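Annotated sample (chain length 307).
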Amino acid sequence: MRRRSNKSLINKKVLFLALVAGALVYTASGQSRHSQRGTDTDGTILSVTAFRTDKKTEPIKPSDIFLYENGIEQRIKNFAYDPSPAKIVLLVDNSKTIPIDVEKMKRAVMEFAYEIFDGDQLFVIGYDEKPEILQEWTDDAGKLEASLANLRKRGNPNLFDALSAAMSEVLVPLMPGTRKASIVIVGDGLDRDSKTKFDQVLGDLQNNNITVYALQVPDRTGGAYRRDKPKAGAAIDQLTEGTGGQAFPLADAQAAAKSICDELRRNRYLLTYTPLNTSSFDVRRVLVVANEGITLRAKNAQPPNVK
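Output written by the structure step:
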């Protein structure tokens, strides 16, 4: 991944990690048993979005939640509210044919700067054939706005490569100290020529408990068939639903940014369980449901726990 100034993220990573090392030492020491694959010595961990729709005020308890892997009910060991700050990567499709203008892209990104909570931070990447850093971690709206002056349209969209880079080079290095990690795609989901396969990137996102949201643009191809990869709209659906996120129309960017930031701060929980009667060497379909009056979202699969 490169910066607009042609300096690569890889070259910047040493400096970046040095700056955050102090913070990571503290958070990692408190969660040293966790791995980036969402497991610890006490079991497997899922990030869950949960909220009440029944107007009751009591906390959501483990006894309100039911978890199944491959249709087999699992024993939930803990279900606890996660008060930690969010790390949000905004992944902006700035390819030449994306059917929105640059000013709309900028406004959509800036809505998140106005909605994040204390402690939350944003990282902005624009992508065409290559992902490029527009802004490293910040909560400063002025700095973010200035960085967007470099946003421009060119080339073709390689979404899956950009997702892989954002995950492996930006979010995973913050783990295990950072639990509340998410990516917001600003685009239509079209991928032209990524070397990264769709199933690979979706599985990696699920393994690392990274939630994908989208500010979705109408499909520029009109739903055209894609060889060896999902259609643009289907890619957005599978990425968001498969990781427990949501897709919103770009036209509703202000409401979408508020909804995403609010739920990351107020409605995120960590669910811990020990898988029973299932194999970690196979894909396990995950279903999390709750008592009436409670709405849940979580990833829908645990990929094989093998390297």
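Annotation: Helices lie at 9-30, 102-115, 141-147, 159-171, 198-207, 232-243, 253-266.
Annotation: Residues 2-15+84-265 form a domain with the Rossmann fold fold (CATH 3.40.50.410).
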